[in-house]
Design brief:
single chain, mainly alpha
């Protein structure tokens, strides 16, 4: 029997029940009969493989299972693999002397208003009724329900499976075995993948934003261009993974293993990488602005041309082979060591994260600290003569006895900063916000106001917006 003859048989069965196949279903039927793969069949239909596999294919097999089960009088699950045998059995049934089953609406069967033909025993009826219920439930675009209908265990049966472009959002795939699976461009937004095995999986360009990947195994996986915005990746394993151009913005990567991973051009803006393992990782041209790298292992890592503005490098582990720009090595040293009484004059520390740094009695004459975050820092008795402190944030900082003569403090913020004994002669204080001006006398406040400084008791019209950093 050729494909066209088989299609005629099936169309006649459907016509008896007031049903028919649409054009796409006919193409799939003919292709399946001819032994074509779904990828080959997809070339003859006007939509993508994802829609074909998620919607059209499952519903065709459900429909044929319903009709052929009805014709044979026993539950029969039709699939691509047993299509030939199922249709041949129907042909044999029609051509034999066996009694023909009456065509009864499934609603009447399920309601128990029709007596079953003798040919259908109780067990077969129960299976058939279950098939009807599953068929009705399968009227959905939800991949998880369709997989359940097809008897697939998402935690076991998808090793190496082609799930590219599939919508798996908001699902539960915790501890799933997806080793070597093809999930490129799949939608896994908000999906629970905690503890899943995704080693060697292809997740390139997949949407994993807000997904839970805590403790997930992604060794040697391909996540090139994947979106992991705000994903929960605490303790995930990414060793040797391809993470090039992936988006980890605001993701939680605490304790994650990224050793030997390719993170070139990745975006890790405001990501939390505290205690992460980045040993031997490549982060060339990566955007780590605002990232928390405290206590991370950065030994042998390559940060060539990486953006580390406002990144927290406190207590990170680096060695002589860590490729880190001298400026950021200096920042790491300031946050990790006691820099009191050191000479950092004329040093470039612009846009650095130096929260809580101990810089008391430090020589910072002519240093560039524009836009630097120095909240809670100890700068007591530091020499900041003619230093560039434009837009610096010094909230809650200790500046007692500090020399700020001639320093540029324009648009700086010193809310709750201690300024007792600080020298501010010739300092540029235009639009500088001093808050209540702790430690300053009323005469000093009056003088600074005359030079453009702003205090809590300044007239409302003078309180222009002050530049401020987003705290980590």
């Amino acid at each position: 029997m050729n494909a066209e003859d088989a299609l005629v048989v099936v169309e006649n069965l459907l016509a008896k029940r007031g049903r028919r196949l649409n054009n796409a279903q006919r193409v799939i039927f003919l292709g399946a009969w001819q032994g074509k793969s779904y990828k080959e069949i997809q070339e003859d239909v006007p939509f993508g493989l994802d829609h074909l596999m998620r919607n059209v294919v499952p519903r065709l097999w459900i429909l044929l299972s319903h009709v052929i089960s009805d014709e044979l009088g026993e539950a029969t699950k039709v699939s691509k693999e047993n299509l030939h045998g199922s249709v041949v059995r129907v042909m044999e049934q029609v051509g034999s002397s066996a009694p023909t089953l009456a065509i009864v609406p499934t609603s009447e069967i399920s309601q128990g208003s029709v007596k079953l033909p003798d040919l259908l025993d109780e067990q077969s009826f129960q299976e058939f009724q279950l098939l009807i219920q599953q068929f009705e439930l399968a009227e959905t675009d939800n991949f998880f329900e369709l997989a359940k209908f097809l008897g697939r265990d998402l935690r076991r049966d998808f090793i190496g499976a082609d799930l590219s472009e599939t919508d798996l959002s908001n699902g539960n795939l915790s501890d799933a075995a997806l080793y070597n699976a093809d999930l490129h461009s799949a939608n896994l937004q908000y999906t629970d993948l905690s503890g899943a095995d995704l080693r060697y999986a292809n997740l390139s360009n997949a949407n994993l934003s807000n997904a839970d990947l805590s403790g997930t195994h992604l060794h040697d996986a391909n996540l090139h261009g994947a979106d992991l915005t705000q994903a929960y990746l605490h303790g995930a394993y990414f060793s040797r993974a391809n993470l090039q151009s992936a988006n980890f913005s605001r993701a939680d990567l605490r304790g994650a293993d990224l050793s030997r991973a390719n993170l070139n051009s990745a975006s890790m803006h405001n990501a939390n990488l505290r205690s992460a393992k980045l040993r031997c990782a490549s982060l060339r041209f990566a955007n780590l602005e605002g990232a928390n790298l405290s206590y991370a292992d950065l030994t042998h890592a390559d940060f060539t041309d990486a953006n580390l503005r406002y990144s927290n490098l406190g207590n990170t582990k680096i060695d002589s082979s860590t490729l880190l720009a001298p400026k950021w090595k200096q920042v790491q040293m300031i946050l990790t060591q006691n820099m009191s009484n050191r000479d950092l004059s004329n040093t470039d520390l612009n846009d650095a994260y130096l929260v809580g740094a101990n810089l008391s009695h430090t020589e910072l004459h002519g240093a560039s600290l524009s836009g630097t975050d120095l909240r809670n820092a100890d700068l007591s008795f530091a020499n900041l003569y003619r230093a560039d402190l434009n837009r610096v944030v010094l909230n809650n900082a200790y500046l007692n006895g500090a020399n700020l003569r001639g320093a540029n403090l324009s648009y700086a913020e010193l809310r709750h900063a201690s300024l007792s004994g600080a020298r501010l002669e010739e300092a540029i204080v235009e639009h500088t916000y001093f808050g209540e001006g702790l430690g300053l006398s009323e005469d000093e406040k009056h003088t600074l106001k005359g030079r453009g400084a702003i205090f809590d008791d300044s007239p409302p019209g003078s309180r222009e917006p002050i530049y401020s950093l987003s705290p980590q």
